[in-house]
Write a structure and sequence with these properties.
With 487 residues, this protein is an alpha+beta fold. The chain has helices at residues 28-38, 54-61, 107-112, 166-172, 203-207, 212-224, 236-244, 312-322, 324-332, 388-402, 446-460, 464-469, and strands spanning 85-88, 92-96, 102-106, 142-145, 149-154, 160-165, 200-202, 226-230, 257-260, 276-279, 291-300, 307-311, 358-360, 367-370, 408-411, 418-422, 426-430, 436-444, 476-477, 480-481. The chain is built from twelve helices and 20 strands. Bound molecules: fe (ii) ion (FE2) and zinc ion. InterPro entries: AlphaKG_dependent_hydroxylases, GBBH-like_N, GBBH-like_N_sf, TauD-like_sf, TauD/TfdA-like, Trimethyllysine_dOase.
Length: 487
């Protein structure tokens, strides 16, 4: 059953929206209820609850509690004669997107997220207003449904009006959540079948001044966890320049930009001719590097040294399906690690008990990070006695899945083809070799990589909120929108 996965690697996140545009499902009956309701939305504080109509209340009660986990590709377009219905009470504003879908926002949340120039600096994108000056029981004096968004007037000595674009409210809806928060998180997980068409960009594309090719390169890396770059001049200088297209090179105990042979110049197995099983780098760091770029510059007088890539998310998905108990153990038990081959350095992660092999997002529960290098593992002196054998069984199963022919993608790299891998997801290794092999490469921090990808996405793949708010006044100052969903 594990073989059948090779040709059709499952998708971890579907690129398809899970539901049709919610604007298309409005009923006529609801529209007329809504237009009646809209006329009465300027209540004074203290009487707001009475304005929650029966129609709205029953619609609110029908709101599905299951969060949508997929991002609609287009947000419902709000048009002047069909504005979202709103209802308010002492604590919250409720917005009806259609007869079934309502979002509720707490008054204090809305006031805290005002993005007027008095409350939010248009250039620095930092909060100016003190959250702690907001009365905990703040209630709007007026709430209006406008074409641009929700307009809220707050009680204060001088009138304070906040505008929240509809698309921004949909994106940030938390009661209930309406979408996945990051459209870039459409990962494509893969097994050995990836060899048929591995993601590749050309050096020319990656270096082109308009950055479009760089966006393609980083998007590939984000979706597949790796990308080849072909046609790179086989020199350390060109490879270093290529690495710096993404962001600052991260200097470590191995130096800044590496250019090395198998002479054990550094105290690590990477600097030998030995085979290396699939692993991630820097398990001994609190913050393992985000990307690793490497480039074989030459290999003379010998053979071997094939590169191994394994999608840790793919293997984890198999494990979760076939061995859920193993998956759970690997998600919970921290693994200590060390880098101790250099006399001048002795690295351990903080906390020293380390991190589990499989790390998850604490909010969504999604798999975020694979950390695995059995060679760098330190003493396991923190296991409950009755977990010792279970844990060894668990890593044996993990190892078996990692080394399955269905998981392993072997490729014999040639000078001129560099590869970048997401070190939080893809495990890499190599076969043993003889002769003289010269490699070069660099680490890039996860934050630098993600930052560059976001900046390029603003330009080349603006999300639905950026698209919907671009025409609002005073939105884009200093080249960045105040409604950017990363803020
Ligand atoms: Fe490595
Ligand atoms: Zn404000």
């Amino acid at each position: 059953m594990w073989k059948s996965r090779v040709l059709a690697p499952p998708r971890l996140f579907s690129a398809q929206p899970a539901h049709a545009s919610i604007a298309t499902r409005k009923s006529n009956a609801f529209r007329s209820a809504r237009s009646l309701h809209r006329a009465s939305l300027s209540p004074a504080a203290g009487t707001l609850a009475t304005h929650l109509s029966r129609a709205a209340a029953s619609a609110a009660a029908l709101t599905p509690r299951t969060p949508f986990t997929h991002l609609p590709q287009t947000l419902p377009e709000v048009v002047a004669d069909d504005l979202p219905i709103i209802s308010v009470d002492q604590r919250k504003v409720a917005i009806g997107w259609d007869t079934r879908t309502w979002s509720r926002f707490h008054n204090i949340w809305l006031r805290d997220h005002c993005r007027c120039p008095k409350c939010f600096h248009t250039i620095t994108k930092q909060r100016l207003y003190s959250t702690f000056d907001i009365p905990s029981d703040i209630t709007p004096i007026r709430v209006e449904s406008k074409i641009e968004g929700l307009l809220v007037t707050w009680p204060s000595t001088e009138p304070h009006v906040s505008l929240y674009p509809w698309s921004w409210l949909q994106w940030n809806s938390y009661d209930p959540p309406l979408h996945a928060k990051n459209p870039l998180e459409e990962k494509i997980i893969w097994g050995s079948g990836i060899q048929q068409s591995p993601p590749t960009v050309t050096y020319e594309e990656a270096m082109a001044g308009d950055d479009r090719g760089l966006f393609k390169w980083l998007s590939n890396t984000d979706r597949f966890g790796f990308s080849f770059i072909s046609g790179v001049p086989a020199t350390p200088e060109a490879t270093e320049e290529l690495s710096q297209r993404i962001g600052f090179i991260r200097e470590t105990q191995y130096g800044r930009f590496w250019d090395f042979t198998s002479n054990l110049a550094k105290g690590d197995t990477a600097y030998t001719t030995l085979a290396l099983g699939a692993h991630t780098d820097n398990t001994y760091f609190t913050d393992p590097c985000g990307l690793q770029l490497f480039h074989l510059l030459s290999h003379v007088g010998g053979t071997g040294g094939a590169t191994l890539l394994v999608d840790g998310f793919y293997v984890a998905s198999i494990l979760k399906e076939l061995h859920p108990e193993t998956y759970k153990l690997l998600s919970e038990i921290p693994v200590p690690a060390h880098a101790a081959g250099e006399p001048s350095a002795l690295y351990r992660p903080s906390p020293p008990s380390g991190y589990p092999v499989l790390g998850h997002d604490s909010v969504s529960g999604a798999l975020r990070q694979v950390r695995w290098n059995n060679d760098d593992r330190s003493v396991m002196n923190h296991l409950e006695p009755d977990l010792v054998e279970k844990w060894y069984d668990a890593i044996r199963t993990w190892h078996r899945c990692l080394t399955s022919p269905d998981s392993e993608y072997w490729v014999q790299l040639q000078p001129g083809t560099a590869v970048v891998v997401d070190n939080h997801r893809i495990l890499h290794g190599r076969s043993a070799f003889d002769g003289r092999r010269r490699m070069c490469g660099a680490y890039i921090g996860v934050d630098e990589y993600q930052s560059k990808l976001r900046v390029l996405s603003e330009r080349f793949a603006p999300d639905a909120v950026l698209e919907a708010t671009v025409h609002l006044p005073d939105t884009t100052v200093g080249g960045r929108s105040i409604w950017n969903t990363a803020l």
